[in-house]
Each structure stands twice: as structure tokens, then as C-alpha cells.
Design a protein that fits this description.
Elements: H1 8-12, E1 14-22, E2 28-36, E3 50-52, E4 54-55, E5 64-68, H2 70-73, E6 77-81, E7 87-91, E8 103-105, E9 112-116, E10 118-125, H3 129-141, E11 147-149, E12 152-156, H4 159-167, E13 172-178
């Protein structure tokens, strides 16, 4: 018999089906057939790119996921490869960016969950609300994307900005984390 050797990750990406056939001598053959979990129905050409054109409702279950850094989540047109290996193209309204947890879909009804990729971030922490506000003001005045949390500020790592923050009296640390900045007062986002 033919045996297919797969890694654990490859096995997790497949669905196993069994086909039972009766032979002319009365014996039965059991044939295992494997299908890729993330392959949408009706998509036979591996060079076909699925178009993701709209946001799915918030409670929609995804068929696959797409992990992107912040820069890519700001683009309305983007070719990409999902975490499961499916070629997709983002064709979305301009002016919005994708938050982690957003589910996209298109005409093929294939649903893709957006995940924020870990990125090197500058982290600033303080319990002093006035100093926190001053740092937010100066970074915001430079149109820097900021993720504001209670007593903590995050932005994409930049040594010039780190030096400015240190000059204002705070220390900066660095961590690799998903980045989810504020959407902005005049910007709409997925969720």
C-alpha cells in the first residue's frame, strides 16, 4: 500500500475521508483520501487567488487566518498567503485598517480571520498621568500610530522617538507584540 508521510502540522491541515470499495472477488478495500481543510469548494486551480472584498459579521467562524504586521493591515489592496497556504487578495474600501479579530470574506464565501503579527514595539510605562499625557501629545503631534493602554504606551520601535521619550523623562523598553494602535478620531475600522 501507498503510505503518505506527513508532519504533525501538515496532518492538522488535512481532513481525512474514507472510501470503501468492493472488489470483484467480494473483498473490500478501504481507501483514505485527504483533503486540505482550507481549500474552498469549487477552487480547483492552485494559482487562483481568492478575493476578500468585505467584512463578515463579528461572530463569523473563519476557515483560515491571515497574520499581518500593522503596515500591511493598513492597505486596501494586498496579495497575501493565508496561514493555511491559500492565495488571497484584499480588495477593501480605502481609508480603513484591519484590526486583529476582523473576519473578511468575498464572493467565494471563504472566511479569513485577521491576526496582528508580533512586531518590535517601543513600550513606555508610567503612573504619572501628566507625564503620560505629555508623551502622548508629543508623539501624536508627529502623527505616530499609538496604542494607548492604562499607564502604558506602545509604538513601532524607532530609536529617534525612543530618544525623544527618554528626553521627556521616561524610560523605553522593547518587546515583540501584536500592535493595535488607536484608529483615530476620524477613522472607521473593522470592529
Amino acid at each position: 500500500p501507498f503510505v503518505l508521510s506527513l508532519s504533525k502540522h501538515e496532518r492538522e491541515q488535512l481532513v481525512q475521508c474514507f472510501l470503501i470499495r468492493q472488489c470483484c472477488d467480494g473483498n473490500y478495500w478501504i481507501i483514505k483520501i485527504y483533503f486540505h481543510k482550507h481549500q474552498p469548494s469549487g477552487l480547483s486551480n492552485s494559482n487562483t487567488m481568492l478575493k476578500l472584498t468585505e467584512l463578515a459579521p463579528a461572530d463569523t467562524q473563519a476557515d483560515d487566518s491571515l497574520t499581518l504586521p500593522f503596515e500591511s493591515r493598513q492597505k486596501s489592496r494586498l496579495p497575501a498567503l493565508t496561514d493555511g497556504g491559500v492565495k488571497v487578495g484584499l480588495f477593501l474600501q480605502r481609508g480603513n485598517y484591519l484590526r486583529s479579530g476582523t473576519v473578511l470574506t468575498g464572493n467565494e464565501k471563504f472566511r479569513v480571520l485577521i491576526k496582528a503579527a508580533p512586531e518590535t514595539l517601543s513600550i513606555v510605562r508610567t503612573d504619572d498621568p501628566l507625564l503620560f499625557a505629555r508623551v502622548c501629545y508629543h508623539l501624536g503631534n508627529r502623527h505616530i500610530a499609538l496604542q494607548i493602554l492604562p499607564g502604558e504606551l506602545r509604538f513601532l520601535s524607532d530609536h529617534v522617538l525612543d530618544h525623544m521619550v527618554e528626553g521627556l523623562g521616561l524610560s523605553v523598553s522593547h518587546e515583540d507584540l501584536p500592535f493595535e494602535p488607536e484608529a483615530g478620531a476620524y477613522q472607521h475600522h473593522g470592529h
